[in-house]
Amino acid sequence: MTIDKPKIHGAFILLGMVLFFPVGIVLLLVRFVTHYKYNHLRANDYMLVGHAFITFYAFIAFIVMLASETTSDVVALLIVFGILIGVPAIIFYIVGARRKKKMANLYNLYYHLTTAQGIDAIDRIAELTGEKPRNVTQDISYMIVSGRLTDARLDPTAQLVIMGNRTAKGQENPNPVGGPATREQIIMTDQVAAARAGAGASSQPAPKMVTCSGCGSSSKVIPGQRQDCEFCGNSLFIPS
């Protein structure tokens, strides 16, 4: 098993932005489309968009300085293009940073569930995290091949995380991903598990409207299930 890598190297995209702007845009769109199912690549894709805007701005600034005769014209044009191009770049940098933080927290939660709590069923992990089983499978596969979840393997047929010779509790290294699962994550896991155990065979709760803290858009979220904002990718969650 190998780590899924970017389908198009970022250097080619940035070069396309300089040599012929439409080519860079097309390559960027192709990369986004081919990475839609790889959570660990999305944060870098958002950051790459920011890099592309900055690279394009630097190219425009170079052309403006060559073509303009007066300093005042250069400054005015650089300010205008700085606003038009710099603001979107900053937005994508922020979205990318939030996405990276979200994935780090999610990896910590996966590790806590599979080791400290001994949960090995993909469907159960998906239920507790609010992620789709497909995303959980892909995320844990990435954790295994990248060394974030050592001495583990996936059984694709049984949809189980097999931890080798390690026991579920009392690990010597409780979380190598970058720190222990946060108190909020553990509380969230326990609350969701308790809520679902108490609900039994009751019907699924009705979705509720929630405002995204990242972009301000409104989305419908089912209580107890985590989902991504369709506009900026920020994580949305309402406790059950």
Automatic annotation (TrEMBL):
Source organism superkingdom: Bacteria
Q: Which UniProt keywords apply?
A: Membrane, Transmembrane, Transmembrane helix
Q: Name the residues that span the membrane.
A: 12-34, 46-68, 74-95
Listed name of the protein: Uncharacterized protein
Q: Which organism is it from?
A: Cohnella abietis
Q: What is the lineage of its organism?
A: Bacteria, Bacillati, Bacillota, Bacilli, Bacillales
